[in-house]
Amino acid sequence: MAELKGKSASEVVSLTRGLGILRAFRAIDAPLGNKEIAERTNLPKATVARLSYTLSKMGYLRQMGPSGRYHLGDKVTALGHALLRTMPVRRVAEPLMQAMADKYEMSVALGIGDGADMVYLHYCSGPETVTMRLRVGTLVPIAQSAIGRAYMWALPEEASERHMQAIRASVGDTADTVEADLRQQIEQVDQRGFSVSFGDWRREIFAVGAPVWLDRGETILALNCGARRRGLEKAHFFETLGPELMALSSELGNRMDQLQASFWDE
């Protein structure tokens, strides 16, 4: 790779490991110590301690209190938002997503797969929405979420299997059960065009998910729509929210095509 020319092998390995440490954090996590980071990255504790210290000095991690546990630092947020601002899909999707969020007083999110998780690229909620108030950068598990199930259904087989292997690695001894359930959920998307999750990720959250195809099918994203289940009937998700989310997905793809905009560039 051209960008790695002039760098020593040890520098490249350190970069890879450092990025792995940053990826170990979740948006709704409590602070992590070196032990937890080592468990998530499968790196030696001594390596984690050295790189975590370096990342904190560079502003990518920040230490919390006398225990020395870490949160993601401000530089990570700045980098993430700088990247997201370059994505035209967020600008095109925002009014469509906000309109649906306002209409149904729910949250609507747009995400892309990353290993065993979906990463929220954009997030909207109605002014009175009863939800977890998540945000851009939030990671949600593919296997238990409506957005993840819709995403997996739309992927080509090779890409789907890569994510499946990452999911299996993330859940340990329950891998067979998790995979079987996820494959069953994916099959059900064939019947209706959207996915559902009724308390599978968070007990109180009901949601539907729909895939999004961009760049003539070369780029796959997914949308979800959901809220806390107070007074919500499952039929509302099947009969109203699922079909409307599919229509939103279609409109998003059409608008991107009309603008001749790709996922990354104008």
Topology:
Blueprint: H1 9-23, H2 34-41, H3 45-58, E1 61-64, E2 69-72, H4 74-85, H5 88-104, E3 107-114, E4 117-125, E5 139-141, H6 146-154, H7 157-171, H8 175-192, E6 195-198, E7 205-214, E8 219-228, H9 234-258
Antiparallel strand pairs: 1-2, 3-4, 3-8, 4-5, 6-7, 7-8
Helix pairs in contact: 1-3, 2-3, 5-9, 6-8, 7-8
Task: Please explain how this structure is put together.
It contains 9 helices and 8 strands. The chain is of the alpha+beta class and 266 residues long. The protein has 2 domains: 8-73, Winged helix-like DNA-binding domain superfamily/Winged helix DNA-binding domain (Arc Repressor Mutant, subunit A, Orthogonal Bundle), CATH 1.10.10.10; 86-258, GAF domain (Beta-Lactamase, 2-Layer Sandwich). A 6-stranded antiparallel beta sheet has the order 5-4-3-8-7-6. Strands 1-2 form a two-stranded antiparallel ribbon. Helix 2 packs across helix 3 (45-58). Mean pLDDT is 85; it is low at 1-8.
**Can you tell me the overall shape?**
globular
- Annotation field: number of helices: 9
Query: What is the name of the CATH class of the largest domain?
Result: Alpha Beta
Head-to-tail CA distance between termini:
25 Å
Do you know the CATH architecture of the largest domain? 2-Layer Sandwich
Q: Could you say what the CATH topology of the largest domain is called?
A: Beta-Lactamase
What is the number of strand segments?
8
Largest sheet: 6 strands, antiparallel
Q: Order of strands in the sheet with the most strands?
A: 5-4-3-8-7-6
What is the H-and-E element order?
Answer: HHHEEHHEEEHHHEEEH
Q: Which class of secondary structure composition applies to the elements?
A: alpha+beta
